Amino acid sequence: MLESLGFRVIEAADGLEALAKAHMHTVDLVLMDCQMPNLDGYAAARQWRERERRLGLPRTPIVALTANAFEDDIRKSREAGMDAHLSKPYTRSQLREQMRQWLYRDETLS
Known about the structure:
This protein is α/β, with parallel strands linked by helices. The protein has helices at about 15-25, 40-55, 70-80, 90-105; strands at about 30-35, 60-65, 85.
């Protein structure tokens, strides 16, 4: 879906790989699956935020992707340092809206 919206995608199989790729690439936004092997999305987001603080990097928006949509799940995502929460299954339109919100605040994403 992201590629069909015109975005370049860097994929990671788990939280450890996502953090490793953060050292190799500059990204504009992270879509963080909360349920991943080896290091879940909550722990990965905490470590991402810690790296930003330690290195004085600007805050990268992190959007939680999860099948869990209860208030406690949203709170847990926010406490881990994520900026938004997108529940699965999500539509192309919902994904486009998240991208617009975090990347194109004053522009229209078609």
